[in-house]
Structures are given as structure tokens and as C-alpha cells.
## 1
Amino acid sequence: MTVLQDHASYFFQIVFHQEINLNPQHTEGGEEADTGQEMVSPESYIKHPLQNKWSLWFFKNDKTKTWQANLCLISTFDTVEDFWALYQNFLYNHIQLSSNLISGCDYSLFKDGIEPMWEDERNKRGGRWLITLSKQQRRQDLDRFWLETLLCLVGETFDGYSDEVCGAVVNIRSKGDKIAIWTADFDNREAITHIGRVYKERLGIPMKMTIGYQSHSDTATKSSSTTKNKFVV
């Protein structure tokens, strides 16, 4: 089992452990009751709902098409099982891993009803926690970081502030890949800093290293290299 498979499998098992309590029927003496029928595990037919429905998008870097035409919806899911099935497609090459994409392509995971663009009504007053990777990190860290980001989103990792999360994007770029979590309101300091601290910890980024939060309005008017961070953790 690869590291990516192990991470996803662990998440899958945790959700089942939290949501399923399989208690066999017992007699008063504490022994299992013999009903004469074979017990069927609920796991075999029950899907376990996520708190939100999510949509996975792909942006293809085709210079002959408009930005909107390059954006393609891959799949929408709202259960643990459907998320797992989708990620199996990545692991077994039915859908390419981020590290195998060509430069200029993106994957985005957003709550259903929110499109992965600054102009969307739910995004335009928000911003992003941005992780910029070196070229060497594409093979070492990119896929692991992106998987951990997906698990943070679908697992509602940010406690009472998960409602502030809109989605996440991974950008494949020749100068260095980027991963970002997008939030809804850049003025919500408490929520933003909590999300940033949790995200940094989940990625295993050392304390001495900082990550920055940028508003979409600033990013839209400046290059990413000159955009000033509103918050850092």
C-alpha cells in the first residue's frame, strides 16, 4: 500500500468507526441471540453521508479555448464511499494524479454550487491560504499535500469554522506548484487564522515556516509574487 492509499484508507476507516456501531443482538445472559437468519452488515448497503456535497473540477490548459471552456466538472459526491471511489480512480490512473498533469492545469474541489473562480458570489469576498512548492516537491510532497487537503475539506476538519471553507485548488506550474484553501470572508480573522493553523498542522509544515493568506481582490489586481499577505501562521 502506498502512502496515498494508506492516508485515504485511514480516513475511510475513521468515518466508519465514528458513524457505525454494529451491536449484535444479545440474550439476557449476554450471549448472541440466534435468530435463524444470517446477519447482514449495514456496511454492505448503507452509504455514509458527508456533511456537504462536493464537486471536483479540472482545468485544462488549452490556449485555443476560453477560460470557462477549459473548466470541466469531473464528479460530484456527498458520501464517504463515493469520495473513496473517486480517489481510487486517481490511485489506479483512471484520473491522473496532480503530479502527472502538464503545466497550466488545475484540480479544484468546491462545495456544490460554488464554482472555482474568484467571481463566484461565495468566493468574491474571500481569499486563500496558499502553499507554494518548490520544483523538487512535485514528486516528494504534491500528491500527499493535495490528498491531505481533500481530507481536510470532506472531513470538516476545521471544527466550527468549516462553514467558512469554500474549496481548494491545486495549480500545476513550471515555476512551482501551488495548493490553496479558499475561504468565504477575508474579514473573518478568527475563522481564517484557525483554518490556517489547523491546515498547517495537518500538512506537517514546521513551526518555523510560515504560510500566508491573501484576499482574492488583492490577488486579482497583482501578481502572486507581489500580493501582500493579510495573515500568516
Note: The beta strands are 49-59, 71-79, 106-111, 127-132, 165-171, 178-183, 212-215, 231-232.
## 2
Amino acid sequence: MEKIRVLDRKCIRTCLKVYRSRESNFKKQISNETLYNIANIPRIDNFIIKLTRDYFAKLSSIENKEIKKILETPDQQIYITNHNSACLPPQAFIYFDKKGIIQDSNNVPTIYHWGRNVANKRINLTTDMIANNKYDPVYSMALPERDKMDFYSLDERYWWLEDSCHRIKLKLRKLNGWSATW
């Protein structure tokens, strides 16, 4: 994911012709957060999560028995699959999103910031590790204003997020404003 994010930032810098900051006498690059704020677009990892959520939200409207089975996979089976093999089924996204492992209540895509070996695809993050900040993020977690103020995951289409703790925190943040919790 980090390779995609680097390419995304390079493309944005080229399109906007914004490379170095005037304050540093054009020696230091403009921060990624500032770059995204100037462009007023979401980060690519947040955008991919949004597209994936929309995909799974639309699956329930398709009249196909096999597709309906995808949505009915029990959480325990996905948990066992994750710990026994490195191959996860597509519906594991719903399970990990419900647990708050994909994205936290501050819209930070936690799953992409946790360092993993290329050969090991297991997701060893737990909700306790994320809630207590007991995982070491490898990449920058700075978010542009657009991503900080994005409340799309509160949409009722995302039925699997109804009971999730990070959705409750997101609702509180929307009511109280961003600065109250950040």
C-alpha cells in the first residue's frame, strides 16, 4: 500500500507543481498533509476503503444465492482462517472492519500502517492493540482535513458497522467536532 501512496503523492505533486516549501528556501519538500489539503482530495488508502465498503454494501441487493453466502460467512470461521493460513476470503473485510482493524474512529486506516512481511499475510492486529495504541505504525498517519472530517462510514448502508465501537466514537466526534477528540 505504501508504494501506491508514494505514487499517488508523486502524481499530485506533479499535477499541482508543488514540490518544495518557500519557508525552507526551497530545500524541504511540502508535507504530505499540506499537499493533500491543497489538492482537497482524500488519501488513496482511505479512498480504497470507501470503495470496498460501497462494494460490500451493494452486494446485499444482488439476487444471487452464491453472493448471499459470501455475506453469511460466520465471523468465527474468518478468524480461524486468518490464523491458520495466509489466504483470507474477500468477506474478511467485513469482519475486520466490524472489529475496527481496517480504520479507526479518527479515519486512520490502521491496517495499512502496520508493518508486515511480504511473505506473511496474516493480520495479527487486535481491537485491544488499536484501542490502546499498542501497535507500532510504520508509515505516516497524518491525515488531511478532508479525511479528518469525512463521516461517510456513518451511512446506514454499512450494516456491519452498526455495533462497532469506532462508529460510536465517530458519531460522538461528529456531534462534538473534530478538535474535541483529536
Note: Residues 1-41 form one domain.
## 3
Amino acid sequence: MPVGVSVCPPSATTLTRIATACRATADGQHGIAFATLVSVTTPEWGIYVVDEVRAWIYSLEPTAKARVVLAIDALAENGPALGRPLVDTITHSSLANLKELRPGTMRILFVFDPWRSSILLVAGDKAGQWEAWYREALPLAEQRYEVYLKERAKEEGDQR
């Protein structure tokens, strides 16, 4: 696992898995910490979560949190087969496979990595700031994915 990544038990609920993932530590070089969720129904589709996304999920009011958790569960169960209206592809990014999970007006930018996992990179509610949200979120997602990819490739022993 990359620096700062923890593996969560596959039998837990999504919120429990996210809470267990809180034990991940920050990468001293980049100041980014990653946590992982392991899908309950299809273990080959693990979900990694950066600490900032985990904290955002916990900051949501209960109804919004439930909507986000259901969307994450659907992603864990379906992987890349999950499509519109819950998932859409981002077209204005340097990452060809950047996608967004779309529970209501909330957005979670994520990527499926080369190891059959997804990583949740940036999250927020874009209500009232439809274009501005992407101007800030896209570069952040690209940066976080670059750090994650290097760390994970190093751990996996390849140079992707």
C-alpha cells in the first residue's frame, strides 16, 4: 500500500469502513493521506479515499451523508459498469479517466487506477457554483492522483 494507506475490513458498512480508514497517516513529503475502502460485494473493486474527502463526508448533515454513502456503495458494487446518472466522465481534465460521482448537487471526483481500484480525490457541493467548483477541483484531483499513482506504483513494484 502507498504511504498513509490503510486497509479496512470487507465486512463493514461504508461509514464504518470510512471511519476505520481514518487511521491512515499523512505522507510527510506531500502532506496527503490516503485511506482505503474495500468493497463488500466485489472485493476486486477497492475504493481509496483521501483524508479530505473522508472529512467532508463526515461533515455532511445526515440526509446528504446517506445520499453520498449510497453512491459510494453503488460504486463499490458496480465498479466501472456504474454509469449515468450517478457517474459521469469529466472531459476537461488532463486525466483521461477522471469521473465524478453525482449524488444530487454533490460531486466526488475519482479515478479507476491500473490496479482495479478507485480513488476518491476531491468532494464538495457545487450548488450555486457550477463552473467555479470545477476550476478549483480539477487541478486538485489531478495533483492528488499523481501523488497516489507514484506511491502505489512504487509499492506494486512497477513504474506506471
Note: The beta strands are 34-37, 46-50, 87-89, 98-101, 106-112, 117-125.
